[in-house]
Amino acid sequence: MTIDTQVLGFGFGERAAFAADPWTSRGRLFAEASSLTRSEFQRDRDRIVHTTAFRRLKHKTQVFIGPDGDHYRTRLTHTIEVAQVARALARALKIDEDLAEGVALVHDFGHTPFGHTGEDALHEMLEPYGGFDHNAQSLRIVTKLERRYAEFDGLNLTWETLEGLVKHNGPLLTRTGEGTRGPVPQPILDYCEIHDLELASYASLEAQVAAISDDIAYNTHDIDDGVRSGYLTFDMLEDVPFLAGLMKEVRDKYPNLDPERFTNEIMRRQITRMVEDVIAVTQGRLSALKPESAADIRNADLTIASFSEGMMETDRRIKKLLFSNIYRHPDIMRIRAGAAQIVTDLFQAYMADPQLMRSHFWVNHISGLDEPQRARHVGDYLAGMTDTFAQRAHRELFDHTPDLR
């Protein structure tokens, strides 16, 4: 695939016909006066950045638990990297950068402490009550749990940002109303009863750009962190032809480069090639579709922002490399088991005695709730914890807390 450089949007003020338009947004659940200085999507982005949920990402695990080292990615640094890639793609495609960045910044709000391990453990605990889904939890946070405004719960984000949060990975329902990836989480269905996010359509191109940026960012930085940790070696990277080619390119140009700079040069090239691949594929699909509005993007029967077939295969190979050498490494699995125990123990303790959630703002009202409602509030409390807070809470309640090192 090749990029048409004549249509790249590197200037300011340019906007494609199919871009989401903040001046004609579908609005907010609760009507607000417009801003004199910012577009509606800029306001959304700014609200997201100033939340408690955003600050908590600093101490939530990406892959490596906090004590492993100061230079490994956290949910916060991952989120910032995703937002940077999303904004670059949006600018190149002449779509709204602020909406793409906002969706990227909010996409991981619902993640629990301890990464996917914490999510799996909390889902198991909540399965009798509807389960746990981090996307649905992100929606709960920005529509209900953040308490920053006098007139409403949540952030009162625009329809377009909420749509992107919920559907950035594609429609949740088929045209006939069946779940595309299993049952739609109940919190999403509940919200759509009062503010329909049109779950059977695709999201805006801005949201699609945020989704593919997530893949680009974590494929790259998990390799970087894996090499830094010693779980990955350069010889292991040779098993992925794409990475082998990048390493040869760097060695040929810089034959005596030290390992740290060598790794950085590989990562720079990986991000560039993946971004350029997405731009080329997206341009090709836009050329074929000829959309004249953002609605045409939503009503298309495919994802517009995507990797090429060749890059998809590279993506699969990288994920396989990461799973076998990092995510499923015995050391990581041991730590994951300890993290899962912490989440499970805390859930059971809070269900047995909700008063233990001393800092939770619902604790004074939880006694009057039925069991499913109580379980969901306990899930909200646990999902909002950072890694460090969860470990400290566990040490206060139990004689032994697993060592996550």
What does this molecule look like?
- The chain has 405 residues and is mainly α.
- 57% of the residues lie in helices and 0% in strands.
Instruction: Give me the secondary-structure category.
Output: mainly alpha
Strand content: under 5%
Largest sheet: none
Low-confidence stretches: none
The helix content is 55-70%
Coarse shape: globular
One letter per element, helices H and strands E, the order comes to HHHHHHHHHHHHHHHHH
Integer average pLDDT: 92
Strands, total number:
0
Tell me the Rg in angstroms. Answer: 22 Å
Number of helices: 17
Distance between the termini: 44 Å
Protein name: Deoxyguanosinetriphosphate triphosphohydrolase-like protein
Domain HD: 75-219
Organism: Rhizobium halophytocola
Keywords: Hydrolase
Topology:
Layout: H1 40-49, H2 52-56, H3 75-93, H4 97-106, H5 115-126, H6 134-145, H7 159-167, H8 186-194, H9 205-229, H10 234-237, H11 241-253, H12 259-289, H13 294-298, H14 309-327, H15 330-352, H16 371-383, H17 387-397
GO molecular function, one term: dGTPase activity
Protein name: Deoxyguanosinetriphosphate triphosphohydrolase-like protein
Pfam family, one: HD
Q: Descriptors for this entry?
A:
405 residues, mainly alpha, globular
Short recap of the structure:
The chain is 57% helix and 0% strand.
